[in-house]
Amino acid sequence: MKNLILVIVSALFILSCTNNKKEKEIENDNRIALHTDTLNVVKLADTLVIYESTCRGCAFEGSTSFEISDSLGIIKLYDIITEDNNPSDMDGGSISKTLVLVPTKIGTTTFKLYKFWKHERTAEDSARFSSYSIEVKN
User: Fold this and answer.
1) N or C: which terminus of the chain has fewer CB atoms within 10 Å of its end residue's CB?
2) Rounded to whole angstroms, how far apart are CA atoms 128 and 122?
């Protein structure tokens, strides 16, 4: 009887020590960082990322936004991940922004990435952009 209780307690102890937490599953962990100075050749199943940052504590910190313009519709902006790795009592610094993009179909395109620092968009905002050339293969 004592052995049976010991076996059951041991089994419960071992089962409780496993890590049953499931982290946010990423469908595709094949991330490709895009560059403006070259033709980026990617696969349809890849996840594309662009690393940006914005001033921490500036007047435009909360209003910084991004938009892409791809006339062929090959690339879509999927998510913007914001990370502030600075201590909370620190003034200044920067906040990193990871733009996650996904290819939607095969082809070659050049898209524009716009970075806005205010909620109201003006004509001058359309003059500030970065161009990325992408070839999506199967």
Assistant:
1) N
2) 11
